[in-house]
Every structure is written in C-alpha cells, then in structure tokens.
Amino acid sequence: MRNVRFLLVLLLLAIPACLFGQIGVRIAIGPPPLPIYEQPLCPGDGYLWTPGYWAYDDGFSDYYWVPGTWVLAPEEGFLWTPGFWGWGDGGFFFTEGYWGPTVGFYGGINYGFGYFGEGFVGGRWDHGHFFYNRTVSNVDGGTIHNVYEAKVENHNNKRVSYNGGKGGIKAHPNAEQEAAAKERHLPPVSAQTEHAQAARSNPSQRAGVNHGQPGVTATARPGDFSANGAAGARETAEPSRPANGGKTAIHPNDLPPIEHPAPVNSGDAKADQKYQKEQEKLIAKQTKEREKLQQKQEAEHQKQANANNQKLEQKHQQQTQKLAQRHAAEMQSLQARQPQPRMAAPAPRR
Fold first, then answer.
1. Contact call for residues 236 and 321 (beta carbons, < 8 A)
2. 241 pairs with which residues across the strands?
3. 24-38, 105-119, 162-176, 191-205: least confident range
4. pLDDT for residue 184 is more than 90
5. Which one of 51, 111, 144, 180 is at 20 to 30 Å from 277 when CA atoms are compared?
C-alpha cells in the first residue's frame, strides 16, 4: 500500500502544476483552526504579505503550519491569492495559491492582515509602486513612505481554516472572482516554495506536535525561522493584526466587540432556531464574564493606586487573554455544531 502511495505521489509531481489547481491528496479530516499571531514588520519596499496556512505532509499523515511571510512580488501590479482547503468528493483538497493582477477566491477564509475572506485591503499598486494600508499592515512609515490609512470593516472573526464540509466556511466565488481565476497567473515563487519546505522539515510546525499552536507562525522574510525574524502563536482571541497596530488588550474593554453572526438558514427552521438561541445564550454569558472581569480589575486599580502599576497591568493582561482564549474556544465549539444545509431531494425517476 505504501509503495502504491509513493508511486501516486511521483505521478502527481510529474504533472505540470498548471494543469490543475488542487493538490491531488484527499484528506478525511480538515485542518486545525488558524492560529492567532502578529505580523512581523515589513522588511522593505515592494514586499507583499502572504498569510500563513496549514499544509499536509503525506509522509507523516499530519498537517503542518507554513508561516505567513513577506515576499517580493514576481511582477509589478501582481497580488497574492492565498491557497485554501475545501471539501469535495468525501474529503478535503487544497487549492494552491497564485500571483495575478486580481485577488481571486480563497474560500472565504479569514487569514487576517487584509485577507478577511474576500479580496485584499492591505495595500494597492499605484504607478509602479505598492502602497501599504497601515491600518492592517505592519509597516514602518519612517522607512517606507508609500503608505496610507483606510479604515477596514472586518465582520469575519472566524478562525475556521477550510471551506465547505461540517463546520466549514460557507462561501462561493462571485462573478468577479470567477473572472480573476481566468486571468494570467504565476505560481508561488521559489522563495515561497523553499519557505514551505523549511516548515515541512521542522517538527514543531506539525499539528500533531504543537496541537494547533505552531512554534513559528510568521516570519519577516521567507525561510527566516530565527528568533529575530519569527513570531509564535498568541494565546488571545483578538483577530490577527499588525504587531504595532492598535493597542494590546489589557482589560476586557480593550477587546473587540463580540461578533453577532448572521442568522443560519440551513433549511431546517427548528434546528436553526435552536442554534440561534444557543448562540445568543453564549454571547450573553461571555458579555457578562467580560463585564465581571472588567469590574474586578477596576476595583484592583482603585485598591492598589500606589502599587506597582506595571506589574498589575501585566496581571490584568494575562487574565484578559485567558478569558478571550476561552471565549474563542467556546464560540468555535458552538460553530462546529452549526446546522448544515439540507441536501436537495433527488428528482423522481420517470
């Protein structure tokens, strides 16, 4: 059996990548949730952000995390469309990412840093230069001057890493994204390929070892897994954001508002109503827990007005992060039980 699998892999490698967009390995279990991490500082002008993702190593039968990293675009005007996992034919397949003039469909996955499920709002090309949106991109304005700030509305706080299947993102390509898929594309550059290979050879990146919390989640440059150029996973429920963008959540009031997802419409009104009530109950509980912790921390501030404020703030930050992490796990567990759309009944045979 192992020899047959080996021959199949060799056959797949022999086929040019341009002939298909999906990796030819079907996986029964979907990838872990996306880890939460901070974006390293952009290393220089012309680098574009390529978000991290879960890849699969057939040799170990395990997922491994390929860190997000800054990459030089292969051509002026080209943008990166991330790859994504999707459900089909009884298993999960990976659709490879690509470079092109327009960002196409990437499964509705919220990879963060401008890739919030549709399109890209982290920057744009203008007269041969790439301009960075500092609202979502970690760029030093003193070194890189082609920057701007545009407010971004992100209504997708899900960390689900795959499209379709049970608990997956329910998104389909629109007309513009379908058109983008037909444009001229370029595959990942050699730096990206080598970066993925480095992640594959690092045992700490495997899901079976790190339990969904990779040792290295993002790097400043491809392949730079050193302590100075890499970032680890964060134990917080804040959405992925630049390391210097916004303030760190120290108190519950610093956390983003709890997201109220859109109503579910699976076709089973009773199941949808039950799920909606469970969702509202969980949001109400988490809101009260935030308020309770906020009040407790404010009381401690008043009681210890003359104490070591830095030490107290560190304690509050740890409390807030633990609360946010637990709330994220609770919400994810509930979303995994979300009612799935009913399959249409087959037409009667004549």
1. yes
2. 38
3. 24-38
4. yes
5. 111
